[in-house]
Amino acid sequence: MIEVVERIGAASLAPFWAPVAAWTGLAVAVALALKLSRGLHPAGGYRIRQAILFALPASFLAAPWVSALGLPGFALPASSSPARDPLTSTVPAGLSWDTPIRGAEVPPTPGAGGAMEGIIAPLPGVATCAVIAFAVVRLAMLAADLHRLRKLRSAAPRVSDPAANALLRGLAGRLGVRRPVELLEGPPDSAPLTYGARRPVIVVPPALLDSPDSLRIVLAHELIHVRRCDSVWALLECLTSAVFAFHPLVHLLRRGIERSRETSCDAEVLAADIVRPSRYAELLAHSHTPTQFPLPAVAASMSARSLTLKQRLETMKNFADKDLTLRQRAGIALGAGIVCLTIALAGACVNWTKEENPAREVISEEDPAQVMERVDAEAGPQRRHYTIPQLSDESISYYYNGTEEDVLKELARLDVQVQYLQEQIAETSATLDRLAERAGDFEVGTEEYWTYLGESARLRERNGLLRSMRTERVRMSEVVKLEYETQKRLGDGARPRNPATADVF
Q1: What are the residues whose beta carbons fall under 8 Å from the beta carbon of 181, sequence distance 6 or more?
Q2: Element (H, E) at 76
């Protein structure tokens, strides 16, 4: 089970968590700049906040296009385990008599680092599974909201008052609403709300139908929602916030979008000179009283709970007489599009790669001699490169490119290993000699005798393994020396098609 979770986490790092991390950094920067901006019309804040939110799913949708177009990516280096040396990883300093020698036979030793690794490794997978579960729950809640709206639409009677319908048609023509809008009578404890994409409806409580002045203000506010298709945008926002419900910034953006949506609508109602600011403020104060009817998140409503009356009154005071021109609306749309596109492309270009050591470029599909000729031609005469074989216990594992300094370091490393193994062989042989001298002190069949035999067998096995490892290192050193001397003497001349080491074994 843990392995499955770890695989899920490893598979989700590049396609999911990396774009989310990139979006978070850029979204925080833009949101802070938006918060510090002064004099920005609430309609601008509304669209820019929407652009930041929609850039998150857009980054995932844009990733295949970025890859297909060959746009440059931003590599996030992932930690990778460095290649261990065969000797230093199997024969550490302070080797005890009971420590196995060969790397293939040494099980991983648990320690503080291993325990911490075991705790941290499954965390990305656990987080990914939690994200999926949270998203499923939130999507189910969104489906319940949509079902409640569908039931409300089927149960709410249509307003039959000719005066109310005439008022709706007149305001729709004045505010530029071309789609037919249906006026419904909601429950007594409901708040005014608007929803619907193809067939928008406005639901008003029965009390408003008895007050033509208040109904005029409410209808003007809700018709602006209809003109801007705010219910469609609200549905898209709810879908995005449901899928990424784990992210706290998504919730903050949703609340900011809801506030900007209503304050910008208030400003447009006052700028259209439909009602006096004082009368509009009185109606807002009345509509902010809590109702028993649950307000669905996918509907645009004049009574948004995330917005305080003080915020709405301040916005009305600052922007009541500032009607947006066509050029300003186009500028807001263009700016929001640029913000969305920039953040989405940045998230789509992020990928997760492992850092590679250029000095150890593996050559497996191309002839080593041809690769070395190309490398030397690119590097110039000042810095020659050599094809260095990397050997396993039985044959050549692979070749990699290295400078003369790399060759000398490799030879020095092998010499240190040979010297270390020689010292261990001498120490083991001396211990065996001491045990052989005491062989007569143990009576056959006693516990001390069997302990002596077991210790002697372990020491002889250890000595054999050490000698085998020393022979292997000596052979590796000779092969590297042969390759190095051969390539050095060839100089700029033709290189052999097959390395000399390929015929050694």
Answers
A1: 168, 172, 200, 201, 202, 223, 226
A2: strand 74-78
Rounded CA separation 374/122 (Å): 43
Write the single-letter amino acid at 376: D
**CA-closest candidate to residue 34, choices 182, 256, 259, 197:** 256
Angle at which helices 18-36 and 248-271 cross, to 10°: 40
**What are the two backbone dihedrals, phi and then psi, of residue 77, each rounded to the nearest 5 degrees?**
-65, 130
d(CA 110, CA 323) in angstroms, rounded, equals 70
- The CA dihedral of 71, 76, 80, 82, to the nearest 10 degrees, is 80
Q: For residue 175, give both structure tokens.
A: 């505010």
Sheet strands (E) in 126-215: 182-185, 193-195, 201-204
d(CA 73, CA 66): 9
- Which residue is listed with tokens 């979006």? 23
Report the chain's terminal Cα–Cα distance, integer Å: 44
Can you tell me the distance from the alpha carbon of 464 to that of 409, in angstroms, rounded to the nearest whole number? Answer: 28
What's the pLDDT at 111?
47
Question: What stretches of 272-387 show up as alpha helix (H) in DSSP?
Answer: 277-287, 309-319, 326-349, 368-379
pLDDT in tens, 234-258: 999 999 999 999 999 999 999 999 9
Q: What are phi and psi of 79, to 5 degrees?
A: -65, 135
Give tens-digit pLDDT for 421-467. 999 999 999 988 888 888 778 777 788 888 888 888 888 899 889 99
Mention every residue, 6+ apart, whose C-beta is less than 8 A from residue 432.
Answer: 456, 459, 460, 463
Least confident interval from 18-22, 109-113, 159-163, 435-439: 109-113
Instruction: Identify whether the C-beta of residue 431 lies closer than 8 Å to the C-beta of residue 476.
Output: no
Q: How far apart are CA 268 and CA 332, in angstroms?
A: 15
Q: Tokens representing 423?
A: 């010292």
pLDDT category of residue 196 using cuts at 50, 70 and 90: confident
- Residues 211/212/213/219 CA torsion (nearest 10 deg): 110
- Amino acid, res. 288: H
